[in-house]
Fold each of these.
Amino acid sequence: MIKLNKILCPTDLSKNAAHALPYAVELAKTYGATLYLLHVVDAYWLESTAIAQLPDYTGKSLYNPTQTAMGELKIIKEGIKDVEIETAEIFGTPYVEIVRFARQEGIS
């Protein structure tokens, strides 16, 4: 019998990505696995917005991707019951960082 200890559910926090979440949660419940919610902030997107040099109206960054993503992941986490959940947010190229994260955490 297959034993799954860790389930990885990468998300870009879009409505389309949200469709995968119920399946990941159900797998985690069925196998008693830890669910890892991962968001990768695309480094290319950050670079392109930095080049745009948007004016600073408030003395603070107009968009803080870390704060926004972690807030969204927290909301998702609070809505899921009966599953151990770990959240992570990293910067880089999404397809590279998702694979790197899975290997680093021993998710196979």
Note: The first strand starts at residue 6 and ends at 10.
Amino acid sequence: MDEQAKLSRADLRSVATYQKGIITCILVYLIALASQFVLPQPAKDIFFIGLAGLGVIAISIVATVFVFLLATKVYTPGIGVLLGILTLLPIVGLFALLVINGKATTILKNYGIRVGLLGANASDLDRQ
């Protein structure tokens, strides 16, 4: 998408919503990554074979959907597909999430919407 293109109020709300989904995926991804270093070995075996295995697959799918939806709003559909595929790869997916989150933050800030650790400020979106 061209930086000069004007986004509608609905588009800004979509960008903010998709960004919140991506931020949630980043947080879950980081918690799963950190738990590998915190949990004792017997708990790791049980946790990562069962619960975390399914959870990581689910988060990867959810992240792919949010990345695609957000990338089609701020980039082109082709880049949306590429970033969506990249989210399915371990570690690379985290970087794809961070890249698209950074782009969304930049766009929202350019429109005067405050963006914090957990995403866009809802009251700023209502004023747009």
Note: The helical segments are 9-38, 41-74, 77-86, 92-110, 122-127.
